[in-house]
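Technical annex, item 7. During the second reporting period the consortium partners agreed on a shared format for inverse folding records so that results from different sites could be compared directly. Each record opens with the tokenized structure and is followed by the designed sequence. A conforming record, contributed by the partner at site C, is shown below for reference.
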């Protein structure tokens, strides 16, 4: 187990945190079990968001409203607001505190905002966050983004104590640059999408790669107990990057070279109800995992919806990776039809 200081927040946490996005998809009993198991085995950092439906409520439920068994001060809670207005932030923080059954949030993050709020920029966003800090409702201010330029601007502003950004062994020099700048500015780096939206095959290699960066805190999004057990076992065994894991990373990098859909789902919603984040990476998915679940009548129906794309371009404006989504969908659909017909074997 490794302890990390989360930059200038001064918060000391276990290096591996719990990403509470996937617990939206399980019931309260299951999420109670997962969250408690994570905590009882050393995880003490839990990252959620106002936008993750009932995830905040589920954390509070698992920790029984933070009683003697689960003391509030032993658990670091980060949540996020998607709002970019004073009114929205004030409303969101009250909702979050209410759902989390607590009177403060350790790290309050702006959730993928369209700009970097600063003092006196006219938006009143940063002033509102400072006000919440003065009132003791939030302890630290963080910024989350998928965009390199915004993350750099947030770091250089010296206004944010943590940056949350996608980071995995597929990351490029840009992400490495953000990690390094965070270290230089003493800003906590929280790594999201360390499994690249489920596309990476080796959780052990993903874990070992991030373990390698002393100022990086990954938040592992887990939905099933087996997934949690994997990460807990790596923490216990103190897994490090060895030759075998480095070789896995090398092969995966070669296979996933170039532009691909990370599965972040920021492009949703599609007016034609196309499940973009699943359809746009079908070609990769079906080759990297057992293909049968991707060939069911339901999956075929999902892929057929691509025919209904009206090329409105709405999704493209929201993709942080600048992907030409309609084109990517078409390519995936053509490939999928060939796999279905047997013309291409996977
Ligand atoms: S371009 Fe196609 S996939 Fe994208 S939002 Fe419009 S209809 Fe949906
Ligand atoms: S197409 Fe872009 S926005 Fe949509 S899921 Fe993929 S990477 Fe994310």
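Designed sequence (site C submission):
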């Amino acid at each position: 187990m490794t302890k990390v200081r989360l930059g200038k927040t001064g918060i000391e946490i276990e290096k591996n945190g719990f990403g509470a996005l996937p617990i939206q998809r399980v019931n309260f009993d299951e999420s109670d079990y997962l969250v408690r198991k994570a905590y009882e085995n050393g995880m003490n950092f839990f990252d959620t968001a106002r936008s993750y439906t009932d995830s905040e409520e589920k954390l509070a439920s698992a920790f029984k409203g933070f009683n003697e068994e689960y003391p509030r001060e032993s658990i670091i809670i980060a949540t996020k607001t998607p709002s970019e207005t004073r009114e929205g932030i004030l409303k969101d923080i009250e909702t979050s505190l209410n759902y989390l059954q607590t009177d403060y949030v350790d790290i309050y993050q702006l959730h993928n905002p369209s700009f970097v709020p600063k003092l006196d920029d006219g938006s009143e966003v940063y002033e509102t966050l400072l006000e919440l800090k003065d009132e003791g409702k939030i302890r630290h201010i963080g910024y989350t983004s998928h965009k390199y330029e915004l993350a750099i601007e947030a770091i250089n502003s010296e206004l944010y104590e943590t940056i949350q950004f996608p980071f995995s062994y597929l990351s490029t020099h840009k992400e490495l640059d953000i990690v390094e700048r965070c270290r230089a500015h003493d800003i906590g780096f929280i790594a999201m999408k360390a499994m690249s939206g489920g596309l990476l095959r080796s959780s052990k290699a993903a874990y070992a790669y991030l373990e390698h960066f002393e100022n990086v805190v990954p938040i592992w999004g887990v939905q099933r107990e087996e997934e949690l057990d994997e990460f807990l076992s790596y923490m216990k065994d103190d897994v490090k990057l060895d030759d075998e894991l480095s070789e896995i990373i090398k092969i995966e990098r070669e296979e996933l070279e170039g532009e691909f859909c990370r599965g972040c789902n920021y492009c949703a919603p599609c007016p034609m109800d196309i499940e973009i984040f699943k359809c746009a990476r079908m070609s990769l998915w079906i080759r990297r995992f057992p293909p049968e679940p991707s060939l069911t009548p339901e999956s075929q129906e999902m892929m057929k919806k691509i025919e209904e794309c009206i090329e409105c371009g709405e999704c493209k404006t929201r993709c942080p990776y600048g992907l030409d989504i309609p084109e990517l969908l078409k390519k995936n659909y053509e490939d999928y039809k060939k796999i279905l017909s047997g013309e291409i074997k996977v």
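The CA atoms of residues 24 and 55 lie 5 Å apart. The mean pLDDT is 95. All partners now use this format for quarterly exchanges.
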